[in-house]
Amino acid sequence: SNVDRANTAQHRIKLLFEDPKFTPDSLKIGEMFDVKTINYKSNVIVAVDEIDALWVGQTIDSLAHAYKNIITKGVLQAKKNHSFKTKLRQIGEVFLILVVVFTVLFGVNKLFTRLKKYFVHDSKLFPNGINFRNYQLVPKRILNIFIQRFLILVKYFIYLLVLISSITIALKIFPSTEIWAKKAQNIILIP
Q1: Measured on CA atoms in the order 33, 35, 40, 43, is the torsion positive or negative?
Q2: How confident is residue 96, by pLDDT bands cut at 50, 70 and 90?
């Protein structure tokens, strides 16, 4: 069946990825009983027959060459994505993101500590609370509590925004988690 063919081809392509001696020139197109085969060493990776070519609307030769190019590009890209150099670069990028996130969170915390000090402790703004003519609408103590809680709410909202943004950026670094990054980004941007 088609599912079995696809699973077999996928398994054989995975073996190409795991073979350290694989080069793009290693794949050859052969012919066996009116069927074009894509071979690696003496193993058949994928076979293309006339029915496959008809479904795609190409000749058997052009479909076999297209499959060979797709397999070669896919294996080389997978090898590149899983190379030691790429892994080191990805780990370095995650480390850089962590440094930036902690720096931003530290800066936000310092900013809100200064705002709290200015508005609550040192403020000459509303020294006796909010008054209207001779009536005190909001006493200074309640106004201070409101300002403190409002600043805490805004600070935690900024923390949440920074953390969610950094997580989506970090997920985009690794090819295996790019899908999660797109889903998280869509959840954030499209309510």
Answers
A1: negative
A2: very high
Question: Positive or negative CA dihedral for 111, 112, 118, 121?
Answer: negative
Tracing tokens 């995975």 back to the chain, one arrives at 14
Output the pTM of the full model: 0.63
108 and 159 in contact (C-beta within 8 Å)? yes
pLDDT of 188 strictly over 80: no
Query: Nearest-CA neighbor of 106 among 155, 69, 144?
Result: 155
